[in-house]
Amino acid sequence: MVSAFTWTEFAQQIAAGVREGSIYAGLALALVIIYRSTRVINFAQGEMATFATFIAWSLQNHGLSFWTAFPIVLAIAFAGGVAVERILIRPVENASVLTIVIITLGLALLLNGLMSVIWGGASRQFHGPFSTRTINVGGVPISVQDIGIVVTSLVLVAILALFFRYTKLGLALRGSAANPDSSRLVGVRVGWMLALGWGIAAVLGAVAGMMIAPVVFLDPNMMQTILLYAFAAAVLGGLDSPLGAVVGGILLGVTITLLGRYVGFIGSTLKLPAALFLILVLLLVRPGGLFGKVAVRRV
Amino acid sequence: MKVKLAFEVLGFVALAALVALLPRVVSDYRARELAIVGIYFIALLGLAVLTGYSGQISLGHGAFMAIGGYTTAILSVNGFYGHQVRDLWTIPIAGIVAGVAGLLVGIPALRLSGLYLALITFGIAVSFPQLPKKFDHFFGGTTGKILNLVKPPFGLHTTPNNWLYYLTWGIALVLLAAAWFLLRGKTGRALQAIRDSEVAATSSGVNLATYKTLAFGMSAFYAGVAGSLYAIANSYVNPDVFPIILSIYLVVGLAIGGLGSLAGLLVGAALIYFLQNHSDTVARWINHLPGLALDPKQPGIPSIVFGAVLIVVMLLLPSGAGGLLRRLFAPLTSRLYTRS
C-alpha cells in the first residue's frame, strides 16, 4: 500500500532509481556498442555478464579480494567476448539479422545451462566491494553501496568515452562501425575491430553484473530481467547512441522506481509492462529514440 | 509455373495423406506428441507470414498464443453470458480475438522497423504473463483455469489423443492451404516486395500500411488458433503454459525451418517439440561422441543441448532446413521449372 509521501523518501527513491539506472546504463551501453558495429542485438549479453560474475564469485571463494579479482574477471570477460565474435558471429557475418539473433539466443541458453551445471541453480550471496551502511547526503540517508555502484558505472562510461574520442584505436572502432568499407580502405582491420567491440561489451556487462550481484542474489537467471530493462533503455536512448544508452538507462531506472512506488495500480507486477509501454509511446513520437538518428533510406 | 503448381499441389496431397495415415501406425501417445507438433506448426505458419514474407520480426508470438489460449479458457469455463461455449467452437473465436490484437499491435508496428519491432514484441511477450496475475479474478491468476478434458465430439469412436491429432492437423492443413493460396498470388508478392525494399514497394503502388498490418493480423490469427489448441490439449491455462521462452522457441523454429519455406516449417515445429521434451535423448546421442559423458537428468543439460544445437544448426545451415531442402531438390526442381 502507498504510505504517506515524504520528501526524504522521495529522494531515497530517486537515489535507488539512479542506482538501478546505472546498471541498466552499463548493460545498455554494451548492447549499443555491439549494435553499432554488428547491427545485432546481443541476447546473450545478460548471460555473459552473469557468467563473468560467477567467475568473480569463484575467485572470491578462493580467497581473493573483490578488487584483486576485478581485473582478472574483466580480462577473462574481454577474452570471452572476443572469442564469441570470432567463433560464433564471424562465420555468419553476412547472414540475415534473424540468423545472428538466433545464434545469440542459442548462446544465452548454452551459457545459462553451463552456469547451472558448474555452479548450480541456487541463489548465492555475492560480497561486493562497498559497505551497505548508509551515510547522510544533505539530510537523505543513502547507502554507500548505491553511491559506489553509480560512481563505478559512471567512471567506466567516462573512460570509454575518452577511449572512443581520443585514441587512434577508438577512432578505428568508430570508423568501422560507421563505414566498414572506407575504414578497410584506409587500413583498419574491420574484422578485428568488431571482435574488439564484443570484448568491450563483455567487459561492460561483467562490471554491471559484479555491481548488481551484491544487491540482488547471484543465480544463473540474475540478469534476465535486467537485460530487458537494458534493452528498453537502449531503445529509449536510441540504439545508435552511446550517450543515449546512458541517459536512457538512468531515466528508465528513476521512472520505473517512482512508478512502482507511487502509482498503486502499477506496483511491482506491472513495472516492466509500464516501462515498455512508455517506450512504445516514445518510439511512436520519435522512432529513433531520444538521441538516435532515423536513417534516411534509399532504394 | 504450371509444373511448380502441380508440384506444390502434389506435395500438399502427399502431406495430407501422410497426416491421415500416421495414427494407424503410431501409438496413442505418439499421436498426442504429433498433435503438439501440429500446434507449433500452425503458430510457425503465422510467424512465417509475418517474418518470412513481410520481413517484420516478432519475438512476441507466444503472447498471441496466450491470448488465444485464454480466450478459449474463459469462453469454455466462465462462459459467455452464462453459456459455456464448447471448446471446439472457441477455436475460431480465439483466432479472431488474437488476430484483432495483432492488428492493434500492427498499427504502431508500422512506424517501427527491424530490431525496434523485435524488442517491442519481445516486451509484449514479457508483459503478457503479468496481466493474468494482475487481473486474477478474470484470468484465474497464477493457478490459471482448468478446462474440460479433451473428448471426441459427435460420439466419434476414437481416443482423445487421436481426436486431438486429427483436430490439430486438420486445422493445420486448412490453414496451410489458406496461407499458400494467399501467398502465391498478389498478396504474397506485395509482402515480399515490402520485405525486400519498402521504398521500392511503395513506389510500385503497394500500400505499406494495409499489407503490413494485414500480415500482423493474419499472423496473430494463426498464433491465436495455435494457442487455443494448446490450451485444449493441455486442459488448463496459466501464465506458465505460455512462458516467454515460447516466443523464443517459435522464432527459433522459424529460423531452423528456414524463412519463406512452408515445408521447412514442419522440420522447425518437430525440432521445437523434440528439443523441449527429449533433450535427454539428444544428450544420450551426444554421449556417443568420444570423451563426453553428460548426465541427461542434470538440470542445465537441456539448455546446453538446446543452445548448442541452435548454434550449430545456424552456423551450418544459415538458410535453415528449408534452404537445405531447396538445395537438395534444386537439380530436380530447377529442371522441371525451366522446362515449363
Structural class of chain A: mainly alpha
Largest sheet properties of chain A:
2 strands, antiparallel
- Class per helix and strand makeup of chain B: mainly alpha
Form type of chain B? globular
Residue windows where pLDDT falls under 50 for at least 5 positions of chain B:
none
- Seen as an oligomer or otherwise, the chain set is heterodimer
Number of strands of chain A: 2
What is Rg of chain B? 20 Å
Q: How large a portion of the residues of chain A is in β-strands, by DSSP E?
A: under 5%
- What topology, given as strand order, has the largest sheet of chain B? 1-2
Mean pLDDT score of chain A, rounded? Answer: 84
Helix content of chain B: over 70%
Uncertain regions spanning at least 5 consecutive residues of chain A: none
As a percent range, the share of helical residues of chain A equals over 70%
Mean of all residue-level pLDDT scores of chain B: 78
- Measured by DSSP, the beta-strand proportion of chain B falls in under 5%
CA-based gyration radius of chain A = 19 Å
Major sheet of chain A: order of its strands?
A: 1-2
What's the overall geometry of chain A?
A: globular
Ends distance of chain A: 55 Å
Folded structure, characterized:
The complex is a heterodimer of chains A (299) and B (340). Chain A is mostly helical and 299 residues long. Chain A has helices at residues 7-38, 45-61, 66-89, 97-119, 144-166, 168-178, 180-185, 190-212, 223-237, 242-262, 271-285, and strands at 134-137, 140-143. In chain A, helix 2 runs parallel beside helix 4, helix 6 crosses helix 8 and helix 9 runs parallel beside helix 11 (271-285). Chain A is globular, with a radius of gyration of 19 Å. Chain B is built from 16 helices and two strands. The model of chain B has no long low-confidence stretch (mean pLDDT 78). Chain B has helices at 2-25, 28-53, 61-78, 87-109, 114-127, 130-134, 136-139, 160-184, 186-196, 198-203, 208-234, 244-257, 264-277, 279-286, 301-316, 320-339; strands at 145-146, 236-237. At the A-B interface, helix 4, helix 9 and helix 11 of A face helix 5, helix 6, helix 10, helix 12 and helix 15 of B.
